[in-house]
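hey m, so remember when u said the tokens were messed up on ur end? i reran from scratch. heres the input so u can diff it against urs
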Amino acid sequence: MREFNTLKLNSRAENFCCITNEAELERVCDFVQKKSLRLNIIGTGSNVILPETLSGLTIKIDIRGIRYGPTEGMVSIGAGENWHGLVLDTINHNFSGLENLSLIPGTVGAAPIQNIGAYGVELSDFFLSLRAIDVSTGDWINFAKSDCKFGYRDSIFRNSSRYVISSVTLKLHSEFNPILNYPGVKEALEFNNIQSPNAQDLSNIISKIRESKLPNPKRLPNVGSFFKNPIISRDKYRELKRDFDNLPCWEQPDGMVKISAANILDSLGCKGYSEGALEVSKSHSLVIVNHGKAVEQDVRNLVGKLKALVYERCGIQLIVEPIFIKSH
């Protein structure tokens, strides 16, 4: 399974198959229930940490298709479609909204699982519904936005294999309403002499920013940002500012503040920390890269050291973004 996860961890699946339509998915659910097998679900493997052995049946979701309508701005997408490919397709169809989520790796089906977000935009901002099968019963369920319980990089689907998503429906803008207030976006547009960006311009700029910050997993195996930005109280933030002068924060609707995990790790000198073949990227402290034949335990060891250091120095519990798939 090394080629099915972007961190390139050594892993082996007891049983594996690729799912291209809902009928196949129904048969798989029936099979695992009859055989009492564990079901593991992956897309491109860009946000998962695989164990050395995946017990039961592991499936790769490859259900394709992009359909616009029936109402203006509505688009239904197969769970196996590439996310960035969808962003570009919506722009080509003169719809907007997803530009700030450009170049996020993974599939459309994975997007609602962690409520992907970047540069001031989240999937939930444009989410209408999704269709998923209940593995335990074989029943198909349509989930509205409120059913998904979206949070910061979170939903009811995270850390659960009860449901398998087959398609997602979004509602996009017919008129371009750019979100440019995230640090670095306006500056990048100005640097490239773009004064009145269109959707394609913004997508290109966001892609350039991501490429400048995050290593390409095809060249240097990684799963992108490994830790969520902590959300803390204002009092805690004031306390941290005494030791971390340049610690940025973002106001939250509930009065809490979100702080930069990367800034904390940078300040603690974590770039270059290593465990076996794994290393905290020297270019971005939220990224862990694999230089060789790492396994899941190497990841757990390195992540444990980083979390312990941050908790000891800051009193903050870092939360990982990628999902650790259980071995049994």
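this time it looks ok to me. The chain has eight helices and 18 strands. if urs says something different then somethings off w ur setup not the seq
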